[in-house]
Write a structure and sequence with these properties.
about 140 residues; alpha+beta; two-stranded antiparallel ribbon
Length: about 140
């Protein structure tokens, strides 16, 4: 038997390398698109915060909610984007998901949700009827306030 590698093995290695490059490229492109989307959404949010400061609605104390429905205080003030009060914009113009894991510590000291990159479509990927363009939600807040 010769010690030459099987030519099919070389093709398999080449295919795996090509596939790894394609996956890396796809991942980088997805991150680029998400960054561009977050920048557009942040601009919409900044405009909303300025308009809300001029004409209302006034910001309110934001509360977080556990997956089980328990309510926790936060140090945040801002505006809820959805009727469930699980997504909000802070006075500083940051985007928050206010759903947090249940926690005895949060019950005692309050929850500390972290800002997230904003999305142009809030609730995207959720159940039917639960997604809404960010611009529409912000406009509704301004006109209802």
């Amino acid at each position: 038997m010769p010690d030459d590698p099987n030519p099919a093995d070389g093709a398999d290695v080449g295919w795996r390398e090509q596939r790894a490059r394609a996956v890396a490229h796809h991942g980088a492109e997805l991150e680029r698109r998400r960054g561009a989307e977050a920048a557009q959404a942040a601009a919409l949010i900044a405009e909303f915060v300025q308009a809300a400061r001029r004409a209302g609605p006034p910001p309110q104390v934001l509360r977080a909610r556990s997956y089980a429905g328990r309510s926790y205080r936060t140090s945040l003030r801002g505006w809820y984007l959805n009727p469930e009060r699980t997504i909000a914009i802070s006075e500083a113009g940051q985007y928050y998901s206010l759903l947090v894991p249940p926690s005895a510590r949060a019950w005692l000291t309050g929850a500390d949700p972290q800002p997230q990159p904003p999305r142009l479509v809030v609730g995207e990927g959720g159940r039917d009827g639960e997604s809404m363009p960010l611009a529409t939600l912000l406009e509704r807040l301004l006109t209802s306030g």
